[in-house]
Amino acid sequence: MLVSRSAPAQSYVWRNVVMGGGGFVAGLVFHPHETNLVYARTDVGGAYRWSDAGHRWIPITDWISAADNNFMGIESIALDPSDPQRVYLAAGTYRQGGAAILRSDDQGRTFQRTDAPFKMGGNETGRFNGERLAVDPNDGDVLLFGSRHDGLWHSGDRGATWQKVAAFPSVGLASPRPAAANTTSNARPRFGRGFGQQQEAGIVSVVFDAASGPPGQATPKIFAAVSTLETNFFFSADAGATWQAVGNQPVGLRPNHLVLSPDGTFYLTYGKEPGPNSMSDGAVWKFEPKKAEWTNLTPLKPAEDGQTFGYGAVTVDARHPSTVMVTTFAHWHPHDFIYRSTDGGAHWTQLWRDDTEWDHSSAPYTKTRTPHWMGGIALNPFNSDQVLFTTGYGIWSCVNATAADSGRPTRWVFLDDGLEETVPLALISPPVGAHLLSGVGDIDGFRHDDLEISPPAGSFAGPRYGNTEDLAFAWGNPQVMVRSGTTGNQSVRAAYSRDGGANWRELAGEPPAGNGAGAITISADAQTVVWTPRGGEPYITTNWGAGWTVCAGLSTGIRVVADTVNPQKFYAFDARSGDLYASTNGAASFQVAGPVLPAQEDNGYGFGGGATVTPTPGIENDVWLAARAQGLFHSTNGGASFVKLEQVQEAGSLGLGKSAPDKNFPALFLTGRIGDRQALFRSDDAGQSWVRINDDQHQYGYLSHVTGDPRIYGRVYFATGGRGVIYGDLNPGPTGAKN
Question: Do 148 and 202 form a contact (C-beta atoms < 8 A)?
């Protein structure tokens, strides 16, 4: 099936809000014969190709739709050594969702898709292991894929069809767990990290030995590593027809990476666990097939170091076959290590020293983060001085790796221009100050005065959270803001700012019930904060957290939002009853304003069962309810009654922005379904008519937290499930112009 590229109803220009990395880059693959052609795969944010001319990463999977959001987790990448135009992606985030082999003959500009008969887990245990997808270097028609649970698979037609290799041993292939709730292919990401973990990762690496056969024929010798503590390394001498275990192999640890040096030597890294959440032991081994000989090359043995850790990745210099580099994994104190050997592992040099230079200029927030989850490392086959390694928040690149060979310090730059992999959890665009503030999973959040650069101050100044889960500002005094989040051992998990998010202070205390984070809002006059901690009831404070009072009339887990005009008015939707609640006394108490929907069970989307209430800026009592599969509803009387917009079949998220030049009502932006088309839409007439504004090439999988800009007509911001924050502006020209 050829992926379509249809045009939108109105032309937009789409860009990332620049943060710089932010998520786990699970693997890197250089093309062996094309200069500076390298691809990166991520666990929830799709795949990228490096543009040497633009000196940035180009996303190649933004065309993935909401229905196929599970394809945004890339399990493996394979390149055809004989054809630099061909790239293959094994796409599937969780085993409960769909999976596909995506194949391109133009370096990822367009793809064809084959739905896979096996499950994948691009965001599951062992997701940095690899590469489990491989192209035969002597016969580009042949591909092999090592699956997690379903064995080894073969394709003889460039990935169009697949057949199981029955002869491969059934070791280390645990059966999948039963599907958990809310795990469909377009389900909301769990902050992008580690859902559905279990120990078994299946066949983690497949390598063809190109030297074993002539070009134009299937390669005879193939090797495959399996993530198991028992016999785990196998080979075939007859192009995969039969398989047997490699003799005298080490056991007791799991292989996670396997590379073949140009001199015919294999190097393998091992961990006790497949990672990335833990790794308590590990090793590095060399296997020389001609001698049938194994050698333990482990630079630093965990048992001798006084702490548990493993080894994450290995790479070989294509120009100098005896030059090998490896990374430790989960070596937390003082940090992970990068080892380099120029004699095939007989001796090692540790590159991460006190005088090692780390250039944080492209993403200042990285100054506060130590590289971790170093699960991928790759030497440039055309430049021995360049080596890249991956982390839980992006890619570091060394510009002078050979300096280590003479004892000199190395220099590393954060090489993430164009690669954005955050999972945003909250977005606000106030009418003054910075145009955008974002709450982000794993790295707190950002104030963006300039959308084109990673903020010079890094993430929020003041209390730091792992996840900032909600943000709000006072419409009558928009420089005053509040945010809630999750943190380590601190008891206070909410903060406020009086300067538009430049600086933050913790609230004096938190409500007596709940376990932190959750939903937060602030009245239009900035005098009342309402906080619903996760698992608790909504509470109010009028003294910045020094005292809290429960909001009467609401049950647990309900998100409260403030009217944008009247500081005494607040709204809340209870999905369990289907009622819209309103308060006219500063959130002290709430009463049912009117029924909206039939009562429903919590569907796993959090507060309000996935329905969101959005008050209209500047108009008292004007309220919108985006209720996902139930559609979009509008009230002009404070929720006493609602009108359903019949043309909207689904309403995932609604945001409001500056009105069109000839209109007096804010523009509406909707991610949802209209006319049986799942897309992003805009309405300039309060929802009477809609135009699609994205196209099939810019779908980004899962979209949420849509908001317009109150100062720029047509501008929209939205969060993705792994591609960061995207913003769109009207394309200058016949269809519109920026204001």
Answer: yes
Looking at the structure, tell me whether residues 226 and 290 fall in a common domain: yes
Residues 117-146 have pLDDT tens digits of 999 999 999 999 999 999 999 999 999 999
Single out the residue in 414, 440, 474 at which a domain terminates: 414
- Pair of tokens at residue 204: 């983690």
pLDDT at 54: 94
Active site residue 43: yes
Pick the last residue of a domain from 414, 444, 463.
Answer: 414
- β-strands 411-414, 357-359: how paired? parallel
Answer for the pair 236, 254: CB distance below 8 angstroms, yes or no.
no
Catalytic choice (281, 317, 417, 442): 442
Q: Do 225 and 258 touch, CB atoms closer than 8 A? A: yes
Q: How far is CA 115 from its chain centroid?
A: 22
pLDDT tens, 62-112? 999 999 999 999 999 999 999 999 999 999 999 999 999 999 999 999 999
Q: What is the token pair recorded at 541?
A: 């404070």
One DSSP character per residue, 475-529 reads TTEEEEEEEEEE-SS-S--EEEESSTTSB-EE-S---SSS-S--EEEE-TTS--E
DSSP state of 689: S
Flag whether 566 is in a domain: no
CA distances from 234 to 226, 247, 255, 526 (A): 8, 9, 12, 66
CATH number at residue 162: 2.130.10.10
- The pLDDT assigned to 352 comes to 96
| Ranges of the chain with pLDDT below 50 | 1-6, 175-197, 603-608, 734-739
Contact indicator for 433, 422 with CB cutoff of 8 Å: no
SS3 303: helix
In a domain, 605, yes or no: no
How far is the C-alpha of 135 from the C-alpha of 145, rounded, in Å?
Answer: 9
Measured distance CA(126)–CA(145) in Å, rounded: 15
Q: Respond yes or no: is residue 343 known to be catalytic.
A: no
**Rounded to the nearest 5°, which phi and psi values hold at 84?**
-70, -10
Q: What pLDDT is attached to residue 197? A: 43
User: d(Cα 24, Cα 73) in Å, to the nearest integer?
Assistant: 11
Q: Tell me, what's the pLDDT at 8?
A: 61
281-284 long-range Cβ contacts below 8 angstroms, 24+ apart: 281/253, 281/308, 281/309, 281/310, 282/253, 282/309, 282/310, 282/311, 282/328, 282/329, 283/250, 283/253, 283/311, 284/311, 284/314, 284/326, 284/345
Residue 704 lies in domain = 1-14+645-739
Q: For residues 110 and 3, is the Cβ–Cβ distance under 8 A?
A: yes
